[in-house]
Amino acid sequence: MNERVTRQAASDAVGGLGWRYILGTLRAAVPVGSLFQGASVALQAVAACGEEADEHLAIDVRVDRVVLTLQTRRLATVTATDVGLARRIAASGLRTEPGDLQLLEIAIDASDIGAVRPFWSAVLGYAEGGPAEPLADPAGQGPAVWFQQMETPRAGRNRVHVDISVAHDEAPLRVAAALKAGGRVVSDARAPSFWVLADPEGNEACISTWQGRD
C-alpha cells in the first residue's frame, strides 16, 4: 500500500473529504473549542489510523483546532496508505476542513550549493539529508530550507526568499491579498506552481502549490 501517488491523484482522492495536498503531505484541520476537546480529537484520529499512525500521522493540537498531517515518513512523500488513512479518519466522523493551512520554506540562491549547504545545516541544527533534498528540522517545527542554483551573481536582488506552500484553491486568494497589501507580481510564468511576488522594497516571496509539478 506504500505506492507513491502523484500530486494530482492525491489531491483528487482527498479533496472531497476536507483534506488538501500541500508540499508532499496531506493536511486537514478539525475545529475544536478547547485543548481538552483537541486531545479527544487527536485520540480519535490515532484510533482511526490504528498501528499505522506512528509511521504516517502527525498531530498539532491547538486551543481552536487540531491540524492533522499524513505522510509516509520513510519515503517523505504521500502514498496510497496515506490516502487510505485520510479516508478512515473521515469515516470516523471527524469534521475535517482545509481552512488556513500552509507550510513555510526558505530558499537560498547560491553559486556553489555544496559550499554553503553545510554552513546552514550547522547553524540551524538541521539534518542535511540527500544533496537534492531540503534541509529539515529534526524536531519538525521549523521551515524547510532549500537551495536554488544561481548561474550568475545577482547584485540587484536579495538572495534569500520565503516560499509559502498553500492549498491550490487558497493560492489565488493569497496572491490577491498580497497585491492589495501593496505587493506586486514579479512573475506568474510558472503559475499555478508558484507566483513570485515582491513587497514595495523589492523583497521577494513565492506563493506555491502542488499544481503543475507532476
TrEMBL record:
EC number: 4.2.1.96
InterPro entries recorded: Glyas_Bleomycin-R_OHBP_Dase, Glyoxalase_6, PCD_sf, Pterin_deHydtase
Record domain Glyoxalase-like: where: 106-207
Catalysed reactions, semicolon-separated: (4aS,6R)-4a-hydroxy-L-erythro-5,6,7,8-tetrahydrobiopterin = (6R)-L-erythro-6,7-dihydrobiopterin + H2O
Pfam families for the chain: Glyoxalase_6, Pterin_4a
Swiss-Prot/TrEMBL GO biological process terms: tetrahydrobiopterin biosynthetic process
Keywords, ordered alphabetically: Lyase
Enzymatic class: lyase
Superkingdom: Bacteria
An example molecular function term from Gene Ontology annotations: 4-alpha-hydroxytetrahydrobiopterin dehydratase activity
Family per similarity comment: Belongs to the pterin-4-alpha-carbinolamine dehydratase family.
Protein name: Putative pterin-4-alpha-carbinolamine dehydratase
